[in-house]
Request: fold
Amino acid sequence: MDENKQKRLKAAGWKVGSASEFLGLTPEEAEYVELKLALGSYLRDVRLNRRWTQAQLAERLGSSQSRVAKMESADSSVSLDLLVKALLAAGASTKDVGRVIAAV
Reply:
């Protein structure tokens, strides 16, 4: 958010902070959320690079399109285990997954 907008919000009585501050997350919880978001985003990138729809990826995973949508958006019901399994099934290598994790 740009500095001018922050000043206007503060002047209007709003509190400006991060999502982690708002939610009261510990540093570990914030990192976990960032990790899930990065893996979900990478799953979407892999799927789009293969020119697959969510339904096509879901079929390959033996899952549903709505579940793939939840994976890509890092829904709270999606585990890291499921994200990694989906990435590997979609054709990502363990090195690719490792690079995403290392970048967080």
Remarks:
- The chain is about 70% helix and 0% strand.
- The chain has one domain: 22-103.
- The radius of gyration is 17 Å.
- The domain at 22-103 is CATH 1.10.260.40 (434 Repressor (Amino-terminal Domain)).
